[in-house]
Design a protein that fits this description.
It contains 9 helices and no strands. The protein is elongated and about 55 Å long. The relative contact order is 0.16.
């Protein structure tokens, strides 16, 4: 009769624990990528105001609505988005939010007039309000102790960088591409983030998920 030593029994458990920890950090990276995109859209439009004014013949009041519509919708619906995540599932609300955000990013890039752009910005803010609260909830649910402190530090770092990066990225993009192409690139970037979000919690190969994440980041910023 063969016997199994305690060391042999502990090895698979340790491997499973390490794999689960790596999956949680990968999941956090994907969630923070979506958070970064949502923060980017708070300030990225500010730099594009002159182009929007000339291309769409927007008045000063319309420009104010375009800038503030996203922030107002996001602020008003943020607590509601968090509550809906508790009721219907954080993963489901995050995917719905990032889907709405992605589609409205495309609508903003293709908007033929200020009314369409303003409406798209309001809906885009609502999508961000559904998406963003789920990130903190996932951190609280999936991390504990030192790991939670590190995850919250990463969350805070993305908050700080995202608030500043919008204007820098807008300057780089406006120097090379039109507003419609910028909207299309934002649309494609959030598509990649949404695809990774929908697959990251499933039982796919670890190497495949890491490779997909690296490819998404590289192609989004090249």
């Amino acid at each position: 009769m063969t016997t199994t030593s305690p060391t042999q029994r502990a090895a698979p458990t340790a491997d499973a624990s390490a794999a689960g920890s790596a999956a949680r950090w990968l999941m956090l990276g994907v969630l923070l990528a979506g958070q970064f995109m949502a923060l980017l859209d708070v300030t990225i439009v500010n730099v594009a105001m002159p182009t929007i004014s000339s291309d769409l013949h927007a008045s000063g009041a319309s420009l104010q609505l375009i800038v503030s519509g996203y922030t107002v919708a996001y602020a008003v619906l943020l607590i509601t988005g968090a509550r809906l995540g508790d009721l219907f599932g954080r993963r489901r609300l995050y995917l719905i939010g990032i889907s709405v955000f992605t589609l409205t990013s495309l609508a903003c890039g293709l908007a033929p007039n200020t009314a369409t752009l303003t409406t798209a910005r309001f809906v885009q803010g609502a999508g961000a309000a559904m998406m963003m609260p789920q990130i903190v909830s996932v951190i609280q649910a999936q991390f504990a102790g030192t790991a939670r402190a590190k995850a919250l530090s990463a969350y805070s770092a993305v908050l700080a960088v995202g608030a500043v990066a919008g204007q820098i990225v807008a300057c780089c993009w406006s120097a090379r591409i039109s507003s419609a192409r910028a909207g299309a690139r934002s649309f494609l970037s959030t598509c990649r983030s949404g695809w990774l979000s929908s697959h990251c919690c499933r039982g796919s190969c670890r190497r495949t998920r890491l490779a997909a994440l690296a490819a998404s980041i590289w192609s989004g910023w090249r």
